[in-house]
Automatic annotation (TrEMBL):
A single GO BP: glycogen biosynthetic process
Stretch forming the signal peptide: none
EC number: 2.4.1.186
Source species: Rotaria sordida
Family statement: Belongs to the glycosyltransferase 8 family. Glycogenin subfamily.
Any one GO molecular function term: glycogenin glucosyltransferase activity
Protein name: glycogenin glucosyltransferase
Length: 211
């Protein structure tokens, strides 16, 4: 049985898995160090095409929810936490599916140059700043606690209130100890690693119990 069927047949609470078409990466990958994450990141634009849902909460695969976040469904589009450089981080955000928005995004994406949007975060920031009727709203930082912000002055306060932890650097808690990441000390913090390890063990135990 493949992973898809295992998830759907389990009691995990997952009701459906939706296949989306890989969007063609529009920019020259030979002139830059393009990771697979950047190329695949644009697939999140498909969120605006999921018109069977009125409100969507997007989470990057390297995030971990540690507190209840149901209140996110009450927030308007586009809602995301502020990142370095005055832009919002698109690893966690609130969106509202709308076919008109999706079609406009696809039109712009196909026509765009490489000047501002070689990754999805720049594209989404540009779109909701310059193109969309929706405004950018700022989530409190506890909804997107980025691991490599641990050296900032506000870290202790955000750490205590964190609802979603985001391992946004190249070093992940499941790989930094065997993959050659030169800057892993910057991205991995002891308490965060311990929280991830606890969550990993709970999930493993739950999967074994449910068969």
């Amino acid at each position: 049985m493949n992973a898809r069927k295992q998830l759907l047949n389990s009691n995990s609470g997952i009701s459906s898995l939706i296949d989306v078409k890989q969007l063609e990466y529009r920019f020259n990958t030979l002139s830059m160090n393009t990771s697979r994450n950047i190329v695949c990141g644009f697939n999140k634009l498909h969120l605006w095409n999921l018109v069977n849902y009125t409100k969507l909460i997007y989470l990057d695969i390297d995030t971990m929810v540690v507190q209840n976040t149901d209140d996110l469904f009450e927030k308007p589009e586009l809602n995301a936490a502020l990142d370095i450089g005055g832009v919002v981080n698109t690893g966690v955000f609130v969106a509202q599916s709308l076919l008109k928005t999706f079609n406009d995004m696809m039109l712009l994406y196909k026509m765009s140059s490489s000047s501002y949007n070689r990754d999805d975060q720049r594209f989404i920031n540009w779109y909701f700043t310059n193109r969309s009727n929706s405004k950018i709203h700022y989530l409190p930082l506890e909804y997107n606690r980025i691991s490599w912000h641990k050296d900032y002055q506000i870290w202790d306060e955000v750490q205590a209130q964190a609802k979603i932890i985001h391992f946004a650097g190249k070093s992940k808690p499941w790989s930094f100890f065997y993959m050659p990441h030169r800057n892993w000390e910057r991205n991995i913090e002891g308490q965060l690693f311990y929280k991830w390890k606890q969550m990993f063990e709970i999930v493993q135990k739950t999967i074994k119990q449910k068969g």
